[in-house]
Design brief:
Layout lengths: L3 E4 L4 H13 L4 E3 L6 E5 L3 H11 L8 E3 L14 H10 L4 E6 L14 E5 L4 H10 L3 E2 L14 H8 L5 E4 L10 E6 L2 E6 L5 H5 L4 E4 L29 E5 L2 H9 L6 E3 L12 E2 L8 H17 L5 E4 L7 H11 L4 E3 L5
Parallel strand pairs: 1-8, 2-8, 4-6, 5-9, 10-11, 12-15, 12-16, 13-14, 13-15
Antiparallel strand pairs: 2-3, 3-7, 4-7, 5-6, 9-10
Bound molecules: adenosine monophosphate and magnesium ion.
Adenosine monophosphate binds next to strand 6.
């Protein structure tokens, strides 16, 4: 199929209307959101959901998030409640997905066969305009080939998806760079299934109790059934093995200085001079987890373009958005963490 690439800086309304018509007739449109790019289709159509799975090479038991223009637009599709609206008041539109019981207007194919559905209301103006113009909820996973890092800019989208979808809307860089926080509501309690820019502390200000699902920071046991099907799949992974280095930052820096010159190093900005002569992809300053989140997926894709044999990175902190970074990096590294001891 030929993919049309639409720029949003030309004629905004014309582009949005064209893309919305493609969604209504069951086609596939990639669009920017504040988290990562999404690969969208009509969430009420089983055939459109199946087309998403096919375009991504995604296993069809891994459910899709449905995107609505306003929190109350979820009503025909999910059993909402006061706790959903409390979350919506604080965090929507924005990078939060809420899991609720599914209504029959959403076919099981969209929801990976589950009786729940994931609802999100994005704040990005292009995403918002597209959903509003389509007049149907848009099911959209990240717009990458399954298993690869999520795309956060149009050229990374084109690298994976050109020829696989009808339209790609180029909206520049995504602001956050990591996927939405996912919380499952059980009564007034929340279970964090995927960390993101809406932090656990922020959720705890709104819900009575928020538990973190063990698979967010740990490894699923071989026979464990995950709360969120996406937890069991290899994810976000570059081609080369990624090794996360834990230990005092000075010791990790010394280890990086002694790595072979063909290793790719994801170092802090302030370490660049000390690592001169190595292949470096600076991740942001050590204390700046937001910058590190913003650059993670582009850096992992760049490491592939550098033909990395091995990639070394600092193990991030789990503070604030750091937990989201930690969760994505652990999975990208298939849980490979090396502890660097002090040389004293
Ligand atoms: P992505 O679409 O790539 O952002 O991934 C969506 C994530 O949301 C996956 O990890 C899914 O497993 C998860 N998800 C979507 N719907 C549900 C649901 N109904 N219950 C639990 N997890 C879900
Ligand atoms: Mg994804």
């Amino acid at each position: 199929m030929t993919t049309e690439i639409i720029k949003t800086d030309s004629d905004f309304n014309e582009g949005i209307n064209k893309a919305a018509a493609v969604i209504r007739r069951g086609g596939l449109v990639i669009f920017p959101t504040e988290t990562v790019y999404g690969l969208g289709a009509d969430a009420t159509s089983a055939a459109a959901a199946q087309a998403i799975y096919a375009a991504k090479g995604r296993p069809s038991d891994n459910p899709l998030i449905i995107h609505v223009a306003k929190p109350e637009d979820a009503e025909p599709y999910a059993e909402t409640n006061e706790h959903y609206y409390r979350l919506a008041k604080h965090f929507m539109p924005g990078p939060l997905t809420v899991i609720l019981p599914r209504k029959d207007t959403i076919p099981p194919q969209t929801s990976g066969g589950l009786d729940t559905v994931a609802v999100r209301c994005p704040s990005h103006p292009v995403a918002h305009a597209l959903i509003a113009a389509a007049g149907v909820p848009i099911a959209a996973p990240s717009a990458n080939i399954s298993g690869r890092p999520s795309p956060t800019n149009a050229s990374d989208v084109i690298a994976d998806m050109n020829g696989r979808v009808d339209i790609i809307i180029d909206g520049g860089d995504c602001e956050i760079g990591l996927e939405s926080t996912i919380v499952k509501l059980e009564g007034s309690r929340g279970i964090l299934l995927r960390p993101g820019a809406i932090t656990v502390d922020a959720l705890r200000c709104v819900l009575d109790e928020v538990k973190i699902a063990p698979a967010v920071i740990g490894k699923l046991a071989d026979n464990e059934k995950p709360l969120s099907p996406g937890m069991k799949y290899r994810h976000y992974a570059p081609e080369a093995p990624l090794v996360l280095l834990d230990g005092h930052p000075d010791d990790v820096l010394r280890f990086m200085q002694n790595t072979p010159k063909d290793a790719v190093l994801l170092c802090y900005d302030e370490e660049v001079p000390a690592l001169d002569g190595h292949i470096l992809l600076p991740v942001g300053e050590r204390e700046d987890e937001e910058a590190q989140a913003h650059r993670l997926f582009t850096n992992l894709r760049q490491a592939d373009r550098e033909n990395a044999k091995i990639i070394y990175a600092h193990l991030p902190s789990t503070n604030g958005i750091g937990l989201a970074l930690y969760n994505r990096m652990l999975r990208a590294a298939a849980h490979t963490v090396q502890y660097i001891k002090s040389e004293d």
